[in-house]
Every structure is written in C-alpha cells, then in structure tokens.
Amino acid sequence: MRMIAPALRMLVLALLVAFPALAAERLTSPDGRIEVTVAVTGDGRATWAVSRDGRPLIAPSALGFILADAPKLDRNLAIGHVRRTRADSRWEQPWGERRFVVDRHAAMRLTFTETTRLGRSFDLEVRAFDTGVGFRFHFPEALGRMRVVEELTEFDIATEGTAWWTQGGQWNRYEQLYNRTRVEGIGQAHTPLTLRLDTGVHLALHEAALVDWPAMWLTRIEGRRLKARLSPAAEGPPAVVTAPFATPWRVLLVGDDAAALYNASDIILNLNAPNRLGDVSWVTPFKYAGVWWEMHLDTKTWATGPRHGATMANVRRHIDFAAANGLRGVLVEGWNRGWDGDWFGHGEDFSFTESAGDFDLAEAARYARAKGVRLVGHHETAGDIATYEPQLSAALDLYARHGVDSVKTGYVADAGGIRARTPDGRIVYEWHDGQRMVRHHLHVVEEAAKRRIAVNPHEPVKDTGLRRTYPNWVSREGARGMEYNAWGSPPNPASHEATLVFTRMLAGPMDYTPGIVSLEGRGGMPIAGTVARQLALYLLIYSPIQMVPDLPENYERVPAALRFIREVPVDWEESRMLAGDVGGHAVIARKDRATGTWWLGGIATDSPREIRLPLDFLEPGRRYRATVWKDGPGGPKDLRVETVEVRGGAPWTVSMAPGGGHAVRFDARKGEAGGPAARPPAAKRPERR
Fold first, then answer.
1. How confident is the model at residue 687, as a pLDDT?
2. Is the pTM of this model over 0.70?
3. Are residues 540 and 640 located together in one domain of the fold?
4. Out of 483, 497, 573, 687, which one is annotated catalytic?
C-alpha cells in the first residue's frame, strides 16, 4: 500500500503536465473586470498574467526562486490542489485617511508540486480586488531553512506606456526626484512604480506586508519585462528564512486614471494582518513644531557650540509657540550626546540616554507638560544600528519616564552604509532596505509599542501597509522631502509633490513636513510654489502626524496661513481623490473624523490650472460656507482668504497659479434640515472587523 500512494501521486502530476487545460487556473475580481491567470508552461514553469475587461495588463510572467543550497524552485512544476474563497467585510482603522476600509476580493490558493523525484511543494495565494491584484508565496515546513538567492517574479507590462520611478540600489536611498520615461526606459527601480499605459489605464507595482524579507526592487530585463530583485545582504544570499514562511505580497494596483489609482491603494492595507497591539487608544494623531528647520537653514547646528539648536532657551521658545497655537508636540533634534564632529554615517559616538551639556531632557519635558505640550523624541543613528540596538531599551524607557510618547528615528548614511553587528560580533555594512533592516525597524516598533510610544522613521524601509498591524508605526519618510528646499541642491520642482501623490503616497503616510510659509531656503533662496500650495500640501501629502516646521517668526508674519495650520485636521473619516495627473496636478477632498467637516486641497505645477469639479462629496442641495485659502495676484507669497457660499453637488472651479495651490474648508449652514450633524470626536479603538 505504501508503494501505491507515491505512484498514484506521480501519475496525477504527469497528467497535469500532459494536459495544459488542467494546469491553468483563473480568478476573477468581484466586479468581473479583472482576471488573473496562473498557469504552467510546457516545461512546468509557473506564470501569472492579468487582464482587465478582456485586455491584457500583465502578459504571462515568470514565478519561482533560486536557492543557495538546494535546486531552484523554477520548473517541472504542476498545479495541484486549489482552494477558492471570497471576502466582503469592512474594518475600522484607529486613525487614517478613512475610518472604514472595505475588503472585497476573490481568492485562490494553489499548490505547486515538482514532478521530479524531489517532489517539493509550495503554495501561491492570489487575491483579486476590483482595483488590483495581490499574490504571495507560502513555503511549508518541509522546506526547512531556505537561503534565497533570487526571487524570479516578473511583471511583463503588456501595453506601451509611461513610467514614473526612482532608482533602486543607488546611494541616495529613496530620496530622489522621479524619472519620467517610457516603460522601456526603466533601469532598476524602487516601488511603488507608477505606469500610465497608452490606453489611459494607470498601474502601480508595489508590495505589501514586508516582514523578514528584503525589499523588492524592479529591474528591466528586456522590452517591458521587469523582474524582482531583492535588496542585497552584506554577506550571503539576500533572504534567509525558516519555513513555514509567507513572503510579502506582490501588488498590482489598477485605475482608469491617476485619481482612481490613488483611491485603489487600500489594497495595500487589506493585504496586511489586522492590528496585533490590542488597545491603541494611546496612538494620537497630532501636529508638532520643533527644532529642525533652522538647522537645515544652517542658522543653527545639531552640534554643540555657539549656534547649537537644542539649547533650553531655544527649546522653550518652540514649546511656547506650540502651546500658543494648539500644537501637541515639539521635536528636538540635537538634544543628545554624539553630534559633534563628522557624524554622517558614523554613529559610534551617539548616546540615546545622555543629554548634550546645554540641554536637560527632564526639565524640557516638565516645561512642555506644564504648557500642555509633549516632546517628540529623536533618535538619529547615522545608520549605526550596532550602536543603537544595545541602547534601544534604555532609550525608550527614558522617554516613557518623561512622557515622550512618540519618536522620530533616523538612519542618515549612504545606501549600503548601515553599520550592523553579526551574531558573532563582527561589523558588516547592510543596505537600508535589506532583510536585516526590515527586521530592525519592526523590532524598534514592537519595543516602542510595549512602552506606548509611536514611531516615525526617516531614511526608512518603504511603507508596505504595516501600520495596519502595528498602528504605532504612524508615519515615515521614504522619499525626497522638504529639507531639499532648504539646501537647494537643487530644490524640489513644482512637479515633485504632484508626482509624490501618485507614486510614493500609494504606499502610505509620509512625514513630508509641509508648511514653509516663508518660501525661503538657505540665504533666502526661493522655494518653488506659493504659500497656498504649502497649505494645500497638508491635505495632499497625508500623515497622521504633521509638522509645522517653519520658524515661529515666519508664521507670525503670515497669520492667515497660521490660522489654517491650526485648524486643518490630521485624522480623517473619509478621503476622495477627485482629479489629477501624475506630475501635473492633484485635488483631494477629506472629511474630518472629529467634526464631519469637509476640506479640499489642490496643487498645480508650472502652468496655471482651472479645474471644474462637482461638489458631490457634500450633501446635494445643502448650502455651505466655503473658506478658501488661495493664490493672490501679487506673486508666490500673496495668500488670499475669501468666504463664498456653495451648494452640495453644484459645480466648483478650483483655480491655481503656476506652482500654486488651493485649500478650502466647507462649513454646513446651520438650521437646514437633512444635513449631517457634527459629532464629538470618536474614541480611538483597535481595528474591528
């Protein structure tokens, strides 16, 4: 009897290979428009493909793995057992761009088994949404320890088009201006990678739930065929895991236009595991000021000395500004020992528990609390986790003792310059988005959560939706931010933020630090855009924590801008991208979670824009008082505020100067029946399904 089962199994596998019709499985999205096909070729190679409305988006593309100490999982495969399920649920975020997220998809899980004597198996899990596709691999326990040299996943773009991308594997991490090329012009790219096909359909390639695996870059092989490349390790293969193990999801987002692509990005969240932290009512969206922009202007320094920024007198000044304007937090960079000398990429001298000589953490925290403000912690590692990790517990304990419930971490070093220690005590240098750093960032987030501290990493691994699983992972950098406008090397062009909205922002929140109302960098160097644009960025570049970064005296000169910044929310009931084109313009509407008030923000690039929109997010026919912060005729610094009456559902024209912006608050007229009543702030709750 024992001999019959293996023989029968081999016969079944041989039949699957001999009859291709039995070796292809299809999955259709709930609305029937998207179809995913998983198949094997004549020599048993696994492929995947995607079509929409019968038109191909992804041509048949390879799947598989090359291993360091075992034959590759690449050919002689047959599809065995297939399990199909469907989901239609709604879950609640404790904070976010929207309060409720709908998860509606069809799914299948296929088992691939080798037809050779090795007979190894692994599963492919696929989910088809109305707005995209996700798939990941499951390695069973029988595969044991796996040393993965290459992931063979490919994305063969079926139609010609234009791509927006930044270079993977370059010295400047993710902090780059975007390349705009034809698909055939892609080199090696980070994700999200955004495509506009010549048919008008928009796609984005990304990943979700990146845990214990290197980040994925995409390398063009030939034509429009892109292949996954795993961020390298200092030693050995890029990924070493022990089965059972599930890889991150590979994700394709689909939209009829740029606005629809942005609205499709909930897929990233839906492919992550639910909240694992339980009660997260302590995670609080907020705005913060801080000792930061003046260092980038080079009027203050991180290092101690006559221009040191983190002195008690200067920190009190920023705390007073925050308290006077209802800002919850004050970031203090340069507070600790180790900033003197050449610290870039050299973090050996950093202490995360010892203050610099002219700063007192305990006294600053006490002064802030007395003013109704909290300090925002700062841990700059200079990319030296060999120094940071042994101090992490004590550093977080110090913050917890002084009521510091959020921390900005930093890893300033060239890509490939992360200084790490091996288990046997040697120093090696890792990539910012390799497996070692993926593990490190999650370790920091988990340790911070034990102490009810939120985390905002800069120079991070890209966002892949893990904020759903760990809601204290509130934001991150992961793109070229506002500080480049201070340096002028060169400053960000007006197209940059309108590109970020439809590329980087598909991944999740970004601590971009908008609000430079002076429009000046070092030495008075002009920053592209207008004051109204800086305000609109609070709505376009989403983060549950938003910095108010300019100098207090600059805000005092523009009281209308400061009024907007005080009032604009950071936590939303609902968000709708209304219009946009990548690198051109973007207009979004968001509904305040606390009051139900709608806000609208728009930005343009070098050409003036007039965009006519129906106000269909407002209650049809109801009257609203619209307070508009807009570009004036007097140049970039001319901010005008006007109040007009509008009706829900009626047309609305958004006008913006070249490089300009537009921000609006809609207040429902009182005394009219049928409108949504304002409600008190909702209690923070853990995710519910």
1. 55
2. yes
3. yes
4. 483
